[in-house]
Amino acid sequence: MTVEDIAAVSTDDLIAELRGWLDENWDPDLTVAQWWERLGLSGWANPGLPRNAYGRDVPRSDAVRIAQEINDYGALSAPAGLGMLLAAPTIASHGTQEQIDTYVRDIVTGQKAWCQLFSEPGAGSDLAGLTSRAVKDGDEWIVNGQKVWTSLGHMADLGMLLARTEPDAPKHSGISWMVCDMHQSGVEVRPLREMTGNAMFNEVFLSDIRVAGDAVIGEINDGWRVANTTLAFERAGLGTGGGGSGVNQITPGSVAGNLDKRAGDLVAADPMAAARAAAAKADADSDAKPRSVASMLIGYAKKNGKSNDPLIRQRLVELHMLGEIGRLNAERVKAAKAAGREIPGMPNIGKLSMSNVMRLQRDLGLETAGADGMLHGYDEEQMTAVQAAVHNPILPAVTTTALYAQAPPIYGGTDQIQKNIIGERVLGLPKEPGNESKVPFSSLPKNA
């Protein structure tokens, strides 16, 4: 029996166990907080985490399958957001057991929402050039600085904060990874409106905020290593084959106001449910594999009479192939992990591929929509009106994707940064010349 066969058997056993657990535990009359506590403490909310961190230590591909199964069952999905994607696995990798029990437990049970306080106006792609400063004050740190492109910062209870704790150390040293309380005085969050109509991103100003001494994850001045763990999880999660299961994404934490709601009501209230139902029907009516990245657009092309257009057919096949390559790469990673190996650069390759997939989805969706592509709903009410006007439940998903597609090649590390990482760390190509790794950060020219 091959490694792949063993992995498949293990996945089937996991899904069977999950279905039995859902039969016994899912109750739509529970509050969201009650349901998420059951789900989180059972290990099903984020099963990719280690067992000592409220997970089940399963490969990413199995974790995606589990999330899809919970959604298909009709139960409320696990808490969404950067806590699950980034903070929990980073803290599980570098935190103490006390920090895991303090922070990760509240993530998997949805009690706390997180944001990522990494990028700055002068430190985006060159993240190590950050200038936010943390100064020791007794058992605490006092932090001043500015962050930007902070996803869901306005909904966050806690933040993953990178701050410079030793300015006289070299550029990539002297940085620490901290947990920042977003509700304290001195934290100002300003939304940045996007072309989608949303304000997912924010700029955040930190003025004499305080971070507890035991809220540093990893060692003091070793935050760059911890941050690279966070970025690796980000790129793996954003890349093709890394996630994107299309489940109902409910925001956790105290700000969103979902914790006291009836869990069953939030399952029914998903504004994209109609689009997913139509995509599921397209899966059933087509030869595409269920859940393939191209399935929704294949069904959409059939409905709009575009499926016989040779150029659209060719690009649909290309989109399907990219999705399949992403899925198979995820299986390769799973098999390599089972054999005790890693595939260098795979998160970066997946992130690059996702940029291509999003651009192709954008172009195909709008070509298929024709003039209808000029209609877009910016909220649930407008989406419903657009769906009714064109008699097509998928159009809001198409136009939302088209507006959003410009973002993936930028966030999580630009396409150019991914290529640099692959070239230097995987292919062994020489780095750009310079001695910044040895010069104290305080002595470097600005933005160097």
Query: How many domains would you count in the coordinates?
Result: 3
Structural class: alpha+beta
Helix content: 40-55%
CATH class annotation of the largest domain: Mainly Alpha
* Sheet with the most strands, sense and barrel status: 4 strands, mixed
How many beta strands in the DSSP annotation?
8
Any idea what the shape is? globular
Q: Tally the helices: what do you get?
A: 15
Q: Which regions have little confidence, pLDDT < 50, spanning 5+ residues?
A: 1-9, 286-291
Q: What do we call the CATH homologous superfamily of the largest domain?
A: Butyryl-CoA Dehydrogenase, subunit A, domain 3
CATH-assigned fold name of the largest domain: Butyryl-CoA Dehydrogenase, subunit A, domain 3
Strand order of the largest sheet: 1-4-5-8
Topology:
Elements (H helix, E strand, L loop, with lengths): L2 H23 L6 H10 L18 H14 L8 H13 L2 H12 L5 E4 L15 E5 L2 E8 L10 E7 L10 E7 L5 E6 L8 E12 L3 E2 L5 H16 L14 H4 L6 H6 L4 H13 L9 H9 L6 H29 L7 H24 L10 H11 L4 H10 L10 H12 L22
Parallel strand pairs: 1-4
Antiparallel strand pairs: 2-3, 3-7, 4-5, 5-8, 6-7
Helix pairs in contact: 1-3, 4-5, 4-6, 6-12, 9-10, 11-12, 12-14, 12-15
In short:
The chain has 448 residues and is of the alpha+beta class. The protein has helices at residues 3-25, 32-41, 60-73, 82-94, 97-108, 223-238, 253-256, 263-268, 273-285, 295-303, 310-338, 346-369, 380-390, 395-404, 415-426; strands at 114-117, 133-137, 140-147, 158-164, 175-181, 187-192, 201-212, 216-217.
